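Task card 7
Instruction: Convert sequence to C-alpha cells.
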Amino acid sequence: GAMDQTAVRLDNLLLGNPESAAVLETTMAGLKLRALSDGWIAVGGADLGLVINGRLADMWTVLSIREGDVVGFNQPRFGMRAYIGVSGGFDAPLILGSRSVYLRGTLGTALKRGDEIRSLKSAEIHAPKKLKLPSRCIPKRDIQQAFRVLAGPQMDYFSDHGIKVFSTATYTISPVSDRQGIRTDGPPVERVKGPDIITDPTPFGGIQIPGYGVPIIVHRDGQVTGGYAKIALLCQADIDRAGQLCPGDEIRFEFVSRQEALTLWKRQKQVLAEAKEALAA
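Output:
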C-alpha cells in the first residue's frame, strides 16, 4: 500500500470517501493528468509543487476540476511522495482484497503514458462538505527530528559501541532506496556476531544491518522473511514519516521505550480522529 498512509486517509476524509479508497501515489515530479469529466480531487503528502493548468494550487484542500483541466507537479519542495484522491476513489482492480499495486509480486501494473483511469462513482456524488483540512491536522514530516526506534530482536549481534554508533550517528538516505527498503550511507555498525542469521520473519519497519554495516529500513513492499540481523524496529508513529524520505536526506535514530512508542502512536491516532471529526461537522 501507500508509503504514507496517513496522507491517503486524510485525502479520502476530505473527499468524503472511505479511508481505504484507492488514490494515486506519485514520486517526485513528472505525473500529469488530464480530466475527462468534472469532479473533485484532494492532494496530500509531499509538497511537489501542485499545479492545475500551470497555476499553483493548494494541498490538503478539496479542489473542483473541470473537463480538460490538467493536474501536475512542477517543483518538489518537501518530501518524496504525493497522493491524489478523487471523489468516489479510483477504480483499480481488486486483488486479494486490495486495490494497491505490488510490482515485485506481479500484483497489478504500473501506470504508463496514455492510460485512462476512472473513479468509482456512485449514482450521484455531491460536493464534499468541507473544503480544507484544519492546519492542526496536517501531518508534520520533519526529518530533523530523530526517528524513534525500539530495540530489535537481534540486539545481541551488535557491540555496545555499534549500538552507540547507530543511535548517535547521522545517516544519509541512499539513492538506491526503494519501496522495499530505505537504504542509508554512513558509519558502519560494529557487530559481535553475524551479519547473517537463520532466516526469520521480517517485521514491518525492521531495521536490518547487512554485511557492509549500515542500516536498511524495511518499508511497505518489504520482504516477508530475511537473513540479516535487525538492530531496531521503527516506531509505528514514524513509519509514514519515513515513507517521505528523499535521497540525500540526513536522519538520526533514537531508542525509546515501548510505553513511549505506544504514546506516540496514540497521539497520531488522536490527530486523525480530530481530522475526521472536523471534516464531518
